Amino acid sequence: xxxxxxxxxxxxxxxxxxxxxxxxxxxxxxxxxxxxxxxxxxxxxxxxxxxxxxxxxxxxxxxxxxxxxxxxxxxxxxxxxxxxxxxxxxxxxxxxxxxxxxxxxxxxxxxxxxxxxxxxxxxxxxxxxxxxxxxxxxxxxxxxxxxxxxxxxxxxxxxxxxxxxxxxxxxxxxxxxxxxx
Length: 181
Prior knowledge:
Blueprint: H1 17-27, H2 32-37, H3 41-54, H4 60-73, H5 77-89, H6 95-102, H7 109-124, H8 130-138, H9 143-166
Helix pairs in contact: 3-9, 4-5, 4-6, 4-7, 4-9, 7-8, 7-9
């Protein structure tokens, strides 16, 4: 059964078009997830606003590593292909760091603390321990940074859930399936 049908640009609701066109211009093509998500201007534009705002938080290696960790926990194979590609090509993470991120780890101690904390947030549904919170703070993250990590977990979970439900055709090179590393 086809779970989703991405829209062609001329089929996209007018309230989604500016956002979708901006992503298409920036990326160079229209990802299937976005062409499907754009069917709801309210949800799509809300996600895009959050995505844009959070792209200013932390650094790209940490953001992509969090995306990988959360997508692994949520079993989102579509997002794992996207985040693996962006981690390699935009964040310049080597292959071994991408695998570590999927496991909630990193070789850089500060990034490790953020990714480990993000994984604990998603695995525990936010019921982290005092020790978990203390560890991320002691690694040098401010209260604002901790809030941003939580917001990234929520944003990535939204796209994970969306893609797990609709299972759009993958636009990026295949990676090992979630739960297989």
